[in-house]
Structures are given as structure tokens and as C-alpha cells.
Amino acid sequence: MDAFARRMEDALVARVGAARYQLWFHRHAAFVPAGRELVVGVASAHFQEWLEQTFGEAVRSAAADALGAPTAVRFVVDPALFPSDDSASGGRKSPECDPPRGADAHRSPVAAKPQQLNLFGETPAPPPSPRSKRAKPIDGKPARRFKFLSDFVVGACNRVAHASALSVVEDPGQGANPLVIHGPVGTGKTHLLEGIYAGLRRRWPEARPCFVAAEEFVTRFVQSTRFGKTAAFRRQFRECSALLLDDLHNLATAAGSQKEFLHTFDALVADGRQVVVTMDCHPRLTEELMPELVDRLLGGAVWGLLPPDDETRLGILRQKSVGGPPVAEDVLKYLARNLRGNVRELEGAVNGVRHFARVTGRPVDQPLVREALGDLLRHTVRAVTVADVDAAVCTVLRLSAGTLQSKARSWAVSHPRMLAIYLARKHTAATYGEIAKHFGAKQHSTAVAAEKKVRGWLQKDERLALGDREWRAKDLADRVEREILR
Length: 486
Known about the structure:
By secondary structure, this protein is α/β, with parallel strands linked by helices. It is built from 20 helices and ten strands. Strands 5-6-7-4-8 form a five-stranded parallel sheet, with helices on both faces. Helix 16 crosses helix 17. It is elongated, with a radius of gyration of 30 Å. The model is unreliable at about 85-140 (pLDDT under 50).
């Protein structure tokens, strides 16, 4: 290491600390005086942007100390600087020692500035634009098409969650942070998350939001650990303007990934950047996530999505029927009354009716719908009430009607009551407060705790002595569900 490099290192260490110098500068940046300026060579445009934005002032101050006078600093991209460990500065020997490179080899970095030449008088290849990256397939797969919030059908079952998603797009990081959206399959969680991503890209062109599924987050973390690329992994997720994570519950079986996400979460929120996650249940009801992570999630806004009600189903069907053969309003209302499934089932019904009409050459009317969707309509689940669940549990376990609404606390009553609360949350649109009231509890937290308890039974496949026999928890739940759906 020459005298200048040593002075520059000492000056930078004094300003950013030894650990940060080793992480960001050692073997990642080459410092070369060039006339009246200091040229800082780095390996990539991404690294250039990060160093200049994060440590630009520290580098300028250190350069003034090392050179004995205020000096202009310019960052340039040159991957060829870092092919080996020949230089203690992390790069190759200085340009004065290089052989000539054609007619322009004698030009200094200062003279080459209008042409954006690198440290050695060469023109580096420009990095691909983010737009071109999105347009090209990755690993042979087409780029993902994100849905928009304007396409989301709003109803009583999802209005608050939709409004929260809009507020994130309008002012990211300034409202509820994190935003947690939870609900059953097919209720629109991923649509809202994709809509936030698309909205941020459209409203804030300079923003760099990151959309990732939890499974992909785990895969990338495992690969980065295996190949020693943890620093690059962390930069990818901790330098984004907003992190949007789909299906957070899939981190449950990966303790290491949970810890990494927790640290990433803390770094982003502390810096005022938005975090939005989706889950299949309320954070309080999952036992697999770290308590620290659950606590962080509860510090923001937690909104649930319910299966679509009649009015929302009709709106979804109207939207899905646009752009193809016309579907009469009375047919859409018939489908909305008779289908009780999620958004995907409704979309599949519209597609099935249209296909059947096309292959048979008949107009779309109610007789055609009944013929095309006969099996689906026959197996459609009727609207289930809390009282239906109560009656089904009593029937299976041979309990007298009203037993689950009594004040008894013995396990012979309390365990069936907890199972009924869990199944009521699963099969009805009732709130925790409504369920708790039906079973004689004063607070909705009783229903929350009961649901969490039964989830634990099912996950651990526990055995329960109830009624006149011993049951596996899963078998009992299945038997009661069959009774509910009869």
C-alpha cells in the first residue's frame, strides 16, 4: 500500500469506522488521484450509487485530509479494477503503469469526463435500465404482470384493507407501518399487495419497491448463506424504498429466515420506509412466528379480508364478465346468489359459462348456466351461521343443545366450545365479538385465544378425550365440518 492509499484508508476509517470501511471500501473501491480531483473506481453502477449517496461526504472529507487540500471527488464504474488481490487498495495498478490503449490512452479521467470514461480511459458498458430488465424474461419465464388497485372490487368485506392500501401508495412510510393484511385463500390479499407495488411504481417513478413472496425470500437467503453472498442479499432488501412480502406465514418453518426478515424489517421501519405483508391469519393466531416478529407486526395496522358477500360477489362477476361475450345482468345475479366461493371460484364460473356457450353455440342464460355449472352449483356451500356450527359440534359429540353456551369450564365442555369457535371463524363471516357473544363470553379476546388453542391442537395432531371416545384433533374437526356442510 502506497503512502496516499494508507492516508486515505486512515482518514476514511476515522469517519466511518473500521467495520464499515472493511465492508464497503476494502477491495471494493480504488482511490486514484487524477490532477485536481480524486477518482473513486467501483465495480458496478449499483455500488457506485450506494457509495456516492451513503458515503460521498465522508469520502470528500477524507480526500481533503489525505491530499492536504479540498479536492473534487468523482465516482466511476470499472469492473476490471477488481479481478485479483494484487493491490492492497482492492484494484489494479494505477493507470500510469498500464500499457497504452489506443489513441485515447493518454487522456486523463478529467479530460474523459464528458464521455464518461472509466479510470483507465475506457467507456464502460451502460447498465441496463430497470424498464428493460422488467421487460425481459428471467430464466425463460415472462415478466410478472401486476394487478392494480383500481381493478379491485371493493365491498364491506374488504373496504378498510383497500383504503389502507391506497394510503400506502399516497404516502408510503408515513401512515401505518407495517401494514398487515390477512384473510383466507382467494379473498384478494395478493391483489392488494400487487396493487400497492404497481401504484408505487406509477406514482413515485424514482422509488424502488421490492415485491417478493416469502418462499422466494427464504430461497434467496439460503442461497446467499451457502455461497457467502449475505451482504449482497441484505443490500437487496434493505436498500429498497418499500418491502412488500406475500404470505409471511411461509417463514414459519425457517427460523434463520425469520431472524433475517426481523432485522430487515427493523432497518426499513427505522428509516421510515414502508413494509406491507400478507398472512393467512391474524398475527396473534400463529404460534410458529417468533414472538419478536409478531410484536413488530402488531405495532402497525392489521386488517382482515373476509369471503365476498352477495353485493361484492355481484361486483366481481360484473368485472370478470367484461371483455368477452355479453352476460346478462339476471345471469350474474343468479350466480352471485348461488355461488359462495372465493374470487377464483367466481372467475372460474364466468370462464366456464363462456366456454360452454361458445362450444354449444347458445346464448348465455340461466338454463345454460345451470347446465354448465351443474356440479359446482350442487356442491356450493350454503351460508353457515354460528348456530349451525354450535349444533354440528353438539351432534358429533352427542352433547345436549345449549351445552356450549353454558358457564361450565370443565374440559368436557370447554374443549368442544373452543373447537366450535375455531370452526365458526373458519366457516362463517362472524366477527370475534359476535362469536364470543353467542358462546356467552364477555370479551372477544376469549374467542381469539380459543381459535389459537385449536390451531395448536391441529398443528401438533393432538389427541382429545371428548364425548364417549378419544379423537385425533384433525379427525374430529373433519367430522364436524362434514356435519356442518350436510
